[in-house]
Amino acid sequence: MGVFGLFRPGALVVSAAGGLISLRGDRNSCVLRGGEQARLDRDVGSVRVACAAAVFSTESIHVTGPTGQSADLQLSVPGRITRRFHGRLDVIVDGDELVPVVSMDLETAVASVVAAEQIASTPPEALKAQAVVARSFLIAARRRHRGFDACDTTHCQFLREPPAADHPAARAARETAGLLLAFRGAPLEAFYSASCGGRTRTLADAGLDAADGYPYFSVECVHRHAAGGRNGHGIGLCQEGAASLAAERGASFADILQHYYPGTTLETRLP
User: Fold this and answer.
1) Torsion over CA: 5, 7, 10, 14 (sign)
2) With pLDDT > 70 as the criterion, what percentage of the chain qualifies?
3) What does residue 261 show for φ and ψ, rounded to 5 degrees?
């Protein structure tokens, strides 16, 4: 996942959020312990790293646990945003900015997306529907960007910090682990929006080319929307409608998905 792209950072600060993390460049490396920080600054075609007592330049920097495993780390754009991640971090230079990319377990990403997209009080079955949709998108939409699969903006999906294990978003990811939406045997790049305004839209309604993929039917939404209440493109799952189906009609996550994505099937992702 490419992160912080909206900020176009020229500098980043990385620190260990628990245990040790290792920063490895082309020829140099350093280790951060506890609250120690390293500052990364864009230089001409390289990353300048100020890490503890070491200062060096490198074409890219790779941040992991001490033996190369995923680690808890904190990443900041100074003065703008700070976020915690669990994974492996790579930072490269692209023109005038640094590009941070976090490689993480799929289910960690799914839980993080659900936590970012939905409030914790959303009915559990709606959260599970969101988890399946997020997982389907992540699997089907790989390589939407040069150098990484997806970003943490509305271009792909919001992604924030991984939720605690007992958070409703984490439970929704666990209880649907491996499940995705498929159409004609292929994972569906499942679209969704906050509010459809009363009826979801087809791709043609939104001025998009349907090509040979999923047609995205226009379906009625049970949620009582405010007049002119569409928020987002209105294609696929309506988050407000999904919550209403779960809370008012007792719909399961599978019922919700079949309502908004008719003709699809629920399948288990192959290892």
Assistant:
1) negative
2) 97
3) -130, 65
Distance of alpha carbon 54 from the chain centroid? 33
Phi, psi angle pair for 241, to nearest 5°: -65, -40
What are 188's two structure tokens? 């569906």
pTM of the model: 0.91
- The token duo for 182 is 């498929």
pLDDT tens digits, residue range 111-165? 999 999 999 999 999 999 999 999 999 999 876 678 888 999 888 899 889 999 9
The domain spans of the chain are 5-103, 106-268
CA distance 55 to 104: 28
Handedness of CA 198, 204, 206, 209 (dihedral sign): positive
